[in-house]
Amino acid sequence: MTSTSDYVYDHVQASTLNKDIAFRPGTPGPGDRLPVFDLPAATGGRIRSHAITGNKPMLLVTGSYTCPMTAASNPALKRLHRRYGGQIVFVMLHVREAHPGERFDQPHDMDTKIRNARILKERDSLPWALAVDDTQGTLHKQLDEKPNAVWLTDREGTIVYRGLWAGDDESLGEALEAVSKGRTPRKRESTARLKPMAAGIGVMREVTQRSGKRAEADLWKAAPPVAALARIADLYRPLPPHWRTAAAAATIGLGATALVGALTSARKSARKR
Q: What was the pLDDT predicted at 2?
């Protein structure tokens, strides 16, 4: 089935990736109430925001099976969950597929979307609940359509911290520490990009390969420099994801330096002749 919706896309576009790098004005942030939800759970039953927290703060994280940022941030989130999961309820909202392909296409029905969420939970051994948004992304649109963002609330459901990327685990960890002690986080919002995106690029080829060749081809069309960096970063497995990207960037830099050196030497040789 081919999508006719901008939200439920079958091919990732540069315009979609560009929207991921900043929160839109007017979307829920610190001081606002987190939207109320009542959604199916990946493992059966339903997740109701007013019932699941039990008068505890909640961390809501967006993610999907084909999202490299989700795959890269989940290990750090699991470490944070081990530390704060007793005081703060962690919930992941499974949203649209970030990089749909022929193996993991964009879901057009709830059964498929729930299946994808269940596979994500199993793949990453996630210890928290996964709520599955509807196929048109009703809750996701209310929040801001970000692929791997976080919203942390107090006991009353008021947002006290939000982060553009869950992979900024340092800022998130500080916020969780404050909220676990009944305090308001010193830093109310994070829009840090370098570390989270480096980690995401480090697993990008691995994740898009799981999705299918179409996902890889779409990435090359939408963001050729990112696709090239991800391709080189993949050669540096099993380094940690962000170090793979750093190594890839260094490789490109060394290659460019060597090329400039070779061209300079060739010109000098030509002049001597």
A: 45
